[in-house]
Design a protein that fits this description.
Shape: elongated
Structural class: alpha/beta
Number of helices: 25
Strand content: 5-15%
Number of strands: 12
Helix content: 55-70%
Mean pLDDT: 79
Length: 732
């Protein structure tokens, strides 16, 4: 089974000419759809009622006052750029708030009820829906203008509606703005009165706290109790404390140094103390002692120690030393007293500051509820002032003259000519749409059509050669003769067939097709005629036992034929009949017997084929559709060559592929395909297969045509002379 499977065909690549071919082939559909669509578009355009349009243009801005408000700037309804303002305006203009006023102003319920509702008054909602369908809103690019366009079959009504919509929207803006401002003032007044009541309650509460806590509030703006020491006093005290601490530290260090010297060398203290402490008495005593010592040294150089003068000076020295000692002790005691005094002053200053802080903390804790209530009251008073200013500003702004934020720049005027329907545009669109729809339908049908369309389809799908291309509406060459304009197509088929066979002894051919009506019988007869005209001895065997047709063409009886031979009722000479075409014989199918099962696959059939091969140059078998009955498959396995006929655009490709697979399955010698019933006028690609000969042959005069036909027959006879010499046939 796998040996006979057809390999996958290569992928097809579409070319521009393929699209053009589809358009040419399906041009009838395209033209029909085009004209139908164009006719419908034209008819609808002329049937539609005429409609007039009128346009009013208005300028729309945000709300703003003519005179600045209390803040010094004009009051603007929208702060900054609003990207949704225009679209919001469109929706408002189409809302019930605006359109209901238009309906009431023009009494549209009654007018349109008489016009569109058989005289019954319309509901306002119904009228507004009709009006919405007739109106069109559009912004003017890069401006604050809006176009209001209304369509109507009455040009005056269209203008009145556009102007009425503009007026209704203008009134809506003015009224809505006034209503918003009035409602806002009422809310502010209510809040103002509520705050006044709240402030009165808070004031009474604060006064009660002040009385209960015995607070003397000298500063009405103070948010807390007045401290015992203010910041300036604290700063001054801190500065003094720091200065005293510095002096105390210096004195303490000095005292400690002197005490240390006193403990180690008291005599040295007498010399050091005048340098560290400014004391004039001590300095005088030290000076006198030094003078006495100098005198004593001078006297001892001249006198002995017992000398009265020396003794007197010595006594003076001792006396001065005693006085210095006493003075040093007094100075040291004075320094100690100063250090202690400075320390006591620092301690008192620190204690006073801490006591003041503690007192302030206690008072702050005790009086905190009062000051908290006082702060809350002050905040409410501040808010009350702001609310009062806002209320007065809104009252003033309410009475200020306002600039209309909606102005009608271009009132609507009645139209001079109807704008709908636009006949030119509608008809043009109908033509374009019809053309596109026709082309689309053509390609859709082409997409659904899976039949064989081109030689490329055949060779790509079947991977088999195309032996011949037969034009559309071909007749029988038996009737038309060798001068027929279709003969050349079959001559090409004959030539390709001869060159395709690998052995000249292969001369039995069966012509098959996938389905009925593809032209296999016509192909069999005409191909046999061409062979006979070329001088070959040819036999046609009608093997279609169930629906034989060839005997009708030759106008002979079908009583005797192939079945009689296979059933051994008659001999070959009794069954073969001559035809009007020289060298062409015919064997009919004969009557179909009741027991015909497997009759074509019998040994008698094989013997008949072998005997006919000896008597004729070519034997052509006509067969039934290969997918219908098994007879064609049996014939394909018994003859030398199998040729499949495919009718152009008739059966789906899977069906024809299946037929070829059945031939290969029975090991038939598949030689090629014949494309039949080609419309040369629609598909110029097939012109090169047969159209060229047709144009060339029939463009000449009759005598030249006859000479060419005879020359062709002579050439064909010469080409096949070799076959005649090898296979000598005996004619019945």
């Amino acid at each position: 089974m796998d040996d006979f499977k057809t390999s996958a065909p290569p992928e097809a690549k579409l070319h521009f000419l393929d699209y053009w071919r589809v358009i040419r082939i399906r041009k009838a559909i395209i033209i029909t759809v085009f004209f139908i669509t164009a006719a419908i578009a034209t008819a609808v355009t002329f049937i539609l009622p005429e409609s007039y349009s009128s346009t009013a243009r208005i300028k729309v801005e945000n709300d703003v006052t003519d005179i600045p408000g209390l803040n010094g700037t004009p009051t603007v309804g929208f702060m900054g750029y609003d990207p949704y303002f225009i679209q919001t305006t469109f929706e408002i203009m189409q809302s019930e708030m605006v359109l209901s006023n238009v309906v009431a102003a023009l009494d549209l319920n009654t007018k349109w009820g008489q016009k569109y509702n058989n005289g019954e008054t319309l509901k306002t909602t119904e009228t507004m829906e009709i009006l919405k369908m007739r109106m069109q809103l559009a912004p003017v690019k890069n401006t604050k203008l809006i176009s209001i366009t209304v369509y109507s079959d009455d040009k005056n009504e269209a203008a009145d509606l556009a102007n009425a919509i503009a007026d209704a929207y203008t009134k809506y803006r003015i009224e809505s703005r006034r209503a918003l401002t009035t409602n806002g003032v009422a809310v502010l007044e209510e809040q103002f009165q509520e705050q006044e009541r709240d402030i009165a309650t808070n004031q009474a509460f604060v006064e009660q706290l002040r009385h209960d806590l015995n607070i003397i509030d000298a500063d009405p703006n103070a948010e807390g109790p007045t401290p015992t020491m203010d910041a300036q006093q604290l700063q001054m005290i801190n500065s003094q404390r720091i200065e005293n601490e510095k002096i105390y530290s210096e004195q303490l260090v000095q005292l400690q140094k002197l005490q240390s010297i006193q403990q180690t060398n008291e005599a040295m203290l007498c010399d050091v103390l005048p340098l560290m402490v400014q004391d004039s008495a001590l300095s005088d005593l030290v000076g006198k002692l030094r003078e006495a010592e100098q005198n004593w040294v001078t006297l001892t150089n001249d006198y002995s120690l017992t000398n009265i003068v020396v003794t007197r000076v010595q006594s003076l020295k001792d006396e001065l030393r005693g006085e210095i000692h006493d003075r040093v002790l007094g100075v040291m005691a004075s320094l100690e007293t100063q250090v202690d005094s400075k320390k006591a002053a620092l301690d008192d200053m620190t204690a006073n500051v801490e006591a003041a802080k503690l007192k302030d903390q206690e008072e702050a804790t005790t009086n905190q509820p009062y000051y908290v209530a006082k702060r809350d009251l002050q905040q409410k008073l501040d808010m009350h002032k702001l609310l009062y200013s806002k209320l007065e500003a809104e009252k003033l702004d309410l009475n200020l003259p306002k600039t209309s934020m909606v102005q009608t720049t271009d009132p609507a005027e009645p139209g001079k000519a109807p704008v709908k329907p636009n006949k030119t545009v509608n008809i043009a669109l109908g033509l374009v749409f019809g053309l596109l729809m026709g082309i689309g339908l053509a390609f859709f049908i082409e997409y659904l059509d899976t039949s064989v369309k081109t030689i490329d389809d055949v060779e790509r799908t079947f991977q088999a050669p195309v032996l011949g291309v037969i034009p559309q509406n071909i007749g029988y060459l038996v009737d038309e003769g060798s001068e027929s304009k279709h003969a050349e197509a079959y001559r090409v088929l004959r030539t390709n067939l001869l060159f395709s066979r690998k052995d000249e002894k292969l001369n039995t051919i069966v012509v098959v097709s996938a389905g009925a009506g593809e032209g296999k019988s016509t192909t069999t007869i005409n191909l046999a005629t061409v062979f006979a005209q070329a001088g070959n001895r040819v036999l046609i065997v009608d093997s279609d036992l169930r629906r034989p047709t060839i005997h009708k063409l030759f106008k002979v009886t079908n009583n005797l034929g192939l079945t009689n031979y296979l059933l051994k009722q008659n001999t070959l000479p009794e069954l073969v009949q001559t035809t009007p075409v020289p060298n062409l014989d015919f064997m009919a199918s004969g009557r179909l017997p009741n027991s015909s099962m497997g009759i074509l696959g019998s040994a008698q059939m094989k013997e008949m084929i072998a005997e006919l091969k000896q008597r004729y140059d070519f034997i052509l078998f006509d067969s039934p559709p290969i997918l219908g009955v098994s007879d064609a498959s049996i014939l394909a396995s018994e003859v030398d060559l199998v040729m499949q006929v495919i009718q152009y655009r008739r059966y789906p490709q899977p069906m024809t592929i299946r037929a070829k697979q059945m031939i290969e399955k029975v090991r038939g010698n598949f030689i090629g395909i014949v494309l039949n019933n080609i419309n040369m006028s629609q598909d110029e690609g097939y012109y090169y297969y047969s159209g060229y000969y047709h144009d060339y042959y029939y463009s000449r005069n009759p005598s030249e045509q006859e000479a060419d036909a005879k020359e062709a027959e002579k050439t064909d006879a010469d080409d096949d002379s070799g076959d005649a010499e090898v296979n000598v046939k005996e004619k019945y």
